[in-house]
Specification:
- The structure holds 2 protein chains of 2 kinds.
- Chain A is mostly helical.
- Chain A has 2 domains: 36 residues; 224 residues, MetI-like fold (Orthogonal Bundle).
- Chain A contains 13 helices and no strands.
- In chain A, helix 4 packs across helix 12 and helix 5 packs parallel to helix 8.
- The longest helix of chain A has 38 residues.
- The N terminus of chain A is likely disordered.
- Chain B is α/β, with parallel strands linked by helices.
- Chain B has a domain of 65 residues.
- In chain B, 33% of the residues lie in helices and 23% in strands.
- Chain B is built from 9 helices and 10 strands.
- In chain B, the strands form 2 sheets. A 6-stranded mixed sheet of chain B has the order 6-7-8-3-9-10, with helices on both faces. Chain B has a 4-stranded antiparallel sheet with strand order 2-1-4-5, with helices on one face.
- In chain B, a hairpin with a 4-residue loop joins strand 9 and strand 10.
- The longest helix of chain B has 18 residues.
- Chain B is globular, with a radius of gyration of 18 Å.
- Classes of the chains: A mainly alpha, B alpha/beta.
- At the A-B interface, helix 9, helix 10 and helix 13 of A face strand 6 and helix 5 of B.
- Bound molecules: adenosine-5'-triphosphate and magnesium ion.
- Adenosine-5'-triphosphate binds next to helix 1 of chain B.
Chain lengths: 281, 263
C-alpha cells in the first residue's frame, strides 16, 4: 500500500544527507560514457603512433601525460591551477551575491523591472570578452582585473535566472500565501525565493561555466598567471604537450566545479525536493 | 477565534452585490465575465455549480479577497473585502502546486501560523489537532510528494484549518481525485462542517457532489455569469454515500440542477 511505496523513498533531508549525496553523486557517474571517452583517447594515441596523423604539433596523449607530470613535479601546474581556481571562485562568489540580490529585486518588484530591465538587457548583450582590454587599462595586469571581468560576465546568467525563477513561481503559491495572510516579506522569504531556488542553481551553474571561460581569456590576454597564461606561454615556446596539459586541466577544472555546485545545491531542501519530485515522475 | 464578532449584524457571512468582473475589457466584450449578487449565511454549506470557464474561480477569488473586482460590493461579516479577510481561507484545486514541496507535512502546516501571535505550544496544538481532523497525524515528517493526491488535498485542507478559519472557500477541491477518495473526502468535509459550524462556499462542476454536500445549491450561468437558479437542499445530515444518493429528493434535485445547467 501507500506506506510500502513511500518507505523506499529516501527523504532528501536529515542526518547522513552529506554522505548520501556523495554516494548518489558517485552512483551517477556513467561508466559506459567513460568507456567511450577512454576509447577516443586510445584512438587518438593510435592515430599519432601509427603516423596517420602527422601534424607536427598534434602530440599523443602519452606525451601530454608526461608533460603534465613534469609540470606537476616543478609545481607549475599546481600554481597555475590555484591561481585560476581562486580567480574563478572569488569572481563567481561575488557575482552570486550580487546576482541573486539583484535578481530577487527584479523578480519581486515590478518597479525595479520597469526601470532596470532595459539597462540589464543592454549591459548583458555587450560582448564581455571585448571588455578585457579596457579592464586591463583600468586594473592593470592583475588578479583584480581578472576578478572584475569574471564578476561582470558571471553576474548576468545568475541575475536572469534568479529573476526568471521568481517570475515562474506558480500563481497557486502566491494565492496560497495570500489566503493564509502572510506578509509580503514573509511570502518572499518563505515561499517565493525557496520556490525559485532550482532556477537560481541553474544560474549558478551557468555562471560557473562562464567564470572559467573568462578567467582563461583574461589570463590569455592580461594577467600573466594561471592556466590561460600557461597555455599561451607554452604555445609561444612551441611546447604543444605543455599547452595541451593546460587545456585539459582547464577542462577538468570546469567539470569539477560544475559537479561541486550540483553537490552543494542538493543540500538545499528546496533543490533536493525538486530533484526528488522529478525522479519520482 | 480571531474574527471580531461585533461586525456580525446581518446573519450573513458573505454578502455580494452587483459584483462584476470584466478583466479590463470594454465595449462589446466589456459585458464582462461575471455579474453576481448573492448572500451566504453564517455556517451555511453553499455549493456553486457551473460549466467550465463560467467564472466560478473568479467569483471565489473575489469573495476571498484574492482578486480585485471591476464593480460591486463584497463583504465578509459586514466588513468590505479588499484583501484576504481574517478568518477566510481558500482551498485550491491544484493541491500539488499549492503546497511547499521542500517542507515536510508538519512545516507546511505551520505556514499560515508563522509570524502570527500564537505562542509555540498553542501553534503545536493547532497543527496537531488539524492534522488529526484529516487523519494525517502519522505523516508529519513526510514530504508532499511522498503523499497520494488525496492525502495532499487533506494536507491543504488541514493547513487551512490550522489558522482556525470561520469560512472556507473551496475551488473544486476534489476535482482531480478518483471516485473513492473523492467520496471519502466529501464525507470528511461534511463531518468537519458539522463539527465546526464553519461557513463553506464550495465550487464544483459535479452536480451530484453539489447536491450531496450543500445546504443550498447555486447554479452559475450566462454571459456575464450570474445566479441562474437556487435550490434548497433539505436532505437530512449526516448524509450517506449510498442511501442519500438513492433518495427521491436527491434524484429530483440532481435532475433539476442538471436542467438548470442546460445539460
Ligand atoms: N486574469 C484573467 N484575465 C482575463 N480573463 C480571465 C482571467 N481569469 C479568467 N479569465 C476568464 O474569465 C472566465 C472565467 O474564468 P474562471 O477561471 O473563473 O472560470 P471557472 O468557472 O473557474 O472555470 P473552470 O471550470 O475551468 O475552472 C474565463 O472565460 C476566463 O477565460
Ligand atoms: Mg476554476
Amino acid at each position: 500500500m501507500e506506506g510500502a511505496r513511500q518507505a523506499s523513498l529516501r527523504p532528501p533531508i536529515g542526518p547522513g544527507r552529506g554522505v548520501a549525496a556523495v554516494r548518489a553523486g558517485l552512483a551517477r557517474i556513467n561508466l559506459y560514457g567513460l568507456v567511450t571517452l577512454l576509447a577516443l583517447v586510445g584512438l587518438w594515441q593510435l592515430l599519432v603512433d601509427t603516423g596517420v596523423v602527422t601534424a607536427q604539433y598534434i602530440v599523443a596523449p602519452t606525451e601530454i601525460v608526461s608533460a603534465a607530470g613534469d609540470l606537476l613535479s616543478t609545481g607549475e601546474l599546481q600554481e597555475a591551477t590555484v591561481h585560476t581556481l581562486s580567480a574563478v571562485l572569488i569572481g563567481w562568489a561575488i557575482a552570486m551575491v550580487a546576482g541573486v540580490l539583484l535578481g530577487c529585486l527584479f523578480g519581486l518588484f515590478r518597479a525595479a523591472r520597469t526601470y532596470g530591465m532595459s539597462t540589464v538587457d543592454l549591459l548583458r548583450s555587450l560582448p564581455t570578452i571585448a571588455l578585457v582590454p579596457p579592464a586591463v587599462l583600468v586594473f592593470g595586469f592583475s588578479l583584480r582585473m581578472e576578478v572584475a571581468v569574471i564578476v561582470y560576465a558571471t553576474l548576468w546568467p545568475i541575475l536572469i535566472n534568479t529573476a526568471g525563477g521568481i517570475a515562474q513561481v506558480p500563481r497557486e503559491l502566491h494565492d496560497a500565501a495570500r489566503t493564509l495572510r502572510l506578509s509580503r516579506s514573509r511570502t518572499a522569504a518563505s515561499v517565493i525565493v525557496p520556490a525559485a531556488l532550482p532556477a537560481i542553481i541553474v544560474g549558478a551553474r551557468l555562471g560557473m561555466a562562464v567564470a572559467v571561460i573568462l578567467a582563461v581569456v583574461a589570463e590569455m590576454v592580461g594577467t600573466p598567471e594561471g592556466l590561460g597564461y600557461g597555455m599561451v606561454f607554452a604555445q609561444q615556446a612551441i611546447q604543444p604537450a605543455d599547452m595541451f596539459a593546460c587545456i585539459i586541466t582547464i577542462g577538468l577544472l570546469g567539470v569539477v566545479l560544475n559537479a561541486a555546485v550540483v553537490a552543494v545545491s542538493r543540500l538545499l531542501p528546496a533543490v533536493a525536493a525538486a530533484q526528488a519530485e522529478r525522479e519520482r515522475r | 477565534m480571531v474574527v471580531d464578532h461585533r461586525a456580525v449584524e446581518t446573519g450573513f457571512a458573505f454578502e455580494c452585490e452587483g459584483v462584476r468582473e470584466s478583466f479590463g475589457g470594454s465595449g462589446a466584450e466589456g459585458r464582462g465575465v461575471l455579474d453576481v449578487s448573492l448572500e451566504v449565511g453564517e455556517g451555511e454549506f453553499l455549493t456553486i455549480v457551473g460549466g467550465s470557464g463560467v467564472g466560478k474561480t473568479t467569483l471565489l477569488k473575489i469573495l476571498g479577497g484574492l482578486a480585485p473586482r471591476s464593480a460591486g460590493r463584497v463583504s465578509f461579516r459586514g466588513r468590505p473585502v479588499t484583501s484576504p479577510p481574517e478568518g477566510v481561507v481558500m482551498v485550491f484545486q491544484d493541491y500539488s502546486r499549492s503546497l511547499l514541496p521542500w517542507r515536510t507535512v508538519d512545516h507546511n502546516m505551520s505556514l499560515g501560523l508563522e509570524g502570527g501571535r500564537l505562542a509555540k505550544p498553542e501553534r503545536r496544538e493547532r497543527i496537531d489537532s488539524a492534522l488529526g481532523k484529516v487523519g494525517l497525524s502519522d505523516s508529519k515528517r513526510k514530504y508532499p510528494w511522498q503523499l497520494s493526491g488525496g492525502m495532499q488535498q487533506r494536507l491543504q485542507i488541514a493547513r487551512a484549518l490550522a489558522v482556525a478559519p470561520e469560512a472556507f472557500l473551496m475551488d473544486e477541491p476534489f476535482g482531480s481525485l478518483d471516485a473513492i477518495t473523492k467520496a471519502t473526502l466529501q464525507d470528511e468535509l461534511a463531518r468537519l462542517h458539522g463539527e465546526t459550524q464553519m461557513t463553506i462556499v464550495f465550487v464544483t462542476h459535479d452536480v451530484e457532489e453539489a447536491v450531496y454536500l450543500g445546504d443550498r445549491v447555486i447554479v452559475l450561468a450566462g454571459k456575464p455569469a450570474g445566479v441562474a437558479r437556487e435550490f434548497d437542499v433539505s436532505l437530512k445530515r449526516p448524509r450517506h454515500q449510498i442511501t442519500t444518493r438513492e433518495q427521491p429528493e436527491f434524484l429530483d434535485l440532481r435532475h433539476r440542477v442538471h436542467l438548470a445547467l442546460g445539460q
